[in-house]
Each structure stands twice: as structure tokens, then as C-alpha cells.
Write a structure and sequence with these properties.
Length: 164
């Protein structure tokens, strides 16, 4: 399928989306927030919050993986919202902090390869998508938006956990 964008516009759009996913713009990046994170406390729920830092990180990684699976896997099966998108073992998510960070980066790299592939028509509906909305561009922007939101939560938790 050919894109309705000119080659110049397609290149510029990909560059903008890549920057949104990989550079601090109006939001912080995950690695910047995780630097000096009080990792001994990532499993704590504080100030009556319904989640810990490790649960947010698990959710962030899982959701990004789910979107990656959605756009590339023919055998994709939808996860139940919202329960399927949050860890069922909060203590386990705390023990897996480093593995979650590593998996997040690996999946982001896979998404970026799809973004950079000229065969990926940004305006086309992804293979598992529904007509009229679930385009490649939408899915890349969804990852960026979702990540920025939860990185903000992690930033706040870093501050709170470092004070207490």
C-alpha cells in the first residue's frame, strides 16, 4: 500500500515520531527518571497510592509490548482491560525491576525498527487494526503518549520515595 504522504513529508513525520519516542521534549525520558531511583523501595505503595513504582514500570513495559504484538503478530490475542494490563504479583514486579527496564528498551527498539522501515505505511491500518483508526501512526503515538504519562508518575514516585 502506498502512503498519501509525499516522500519528504513521510521522512519528516517519521523523524518527528522517532524524536517523540527517543528524546526529551515536553516530557522526560524513562532513563532520566530511573537514574538514581531508590530501587530498594520500588515495591512500596506510599501515600495511599494504588500502585508502586514497580507496578507502573511493569504496566508500562507490558502495554508497550502489547502494542508491539498488536502491530506485528498475526496471532495477537487481545488482553482483558484493565486487569490484564497490571501485574498480578506486585512483589514479583519489584524483584524484576532491571528485567522490566531491559525489556522496555528491547521492545522500543523493535518499534523503532518498524517506524524506520519505509515499507511501514504510517497512514495504513495495522494488520490487526480496525478500519478507520488503528493506523501505524496512531500506534506509535499511543506508545509515546502512554509512556510519557507513566514516566511522569514514576518521576513523582521517585521524589516521594526519596523524601520518606
Amino acid at each position: 500500500m502506498t502512503t498519501a504522504l509525499s516522500p519528504e513529508a513521510d521522512t519528516a513525520l517519521r523523524a518527528h515520531v522517532r524524536a517523540l519516542l527517543t528524546q526529551a521534549q515536553a516530557h522526560e525520558m524513562l532513563d532520566d527518571v530511573l537514574e538514581d531511583f531508590p530501587t530498594a523501595r520500588v515495591g512500596e505503595r506510599i501515600h495511599d497510592l494504588p500502585y508502586s513504582a514497580s507496578e507502573i514500570l511493569w504496566h508500562l513495559r507490558f502495554t508497550q509490548r502489547d502494542i508491539l504484538n498488536f502491530v506485528r503478530d498475526e496471532t495477537y490475542e487481545e488482553t482483558t482491560w484493565p486487569d490484564g494490563y497490571w501485574p498480578h504479583d506486585p512483589e514479583g514486579s519489584a524483584r524484576e525491576w532491571d528485567a522490566q527496564v531491559t525489556a522496555f528498551h528491547a521492545d522500543l527498539d523493535a518499534l523503532l525498527k518498524l517506524l524506520d522501515d519505509p515499507a511501514t505505511d504510517l497512514l495504513a491500518v495495522v494488520p490487526n487494526g480496525k478500519e478507520g483508526g488503528q493506523t501505524w501512526l496512531r500506534e506509535f503515538l499511543l506508545v509515546a503518549d502512554h509512556t510519557a504519562y507513566h514516566v511522569g508518575q514514576l518521576r513523582l514516585l521517585r521524589r516521594l520515595l526519596s523524601k520518606d
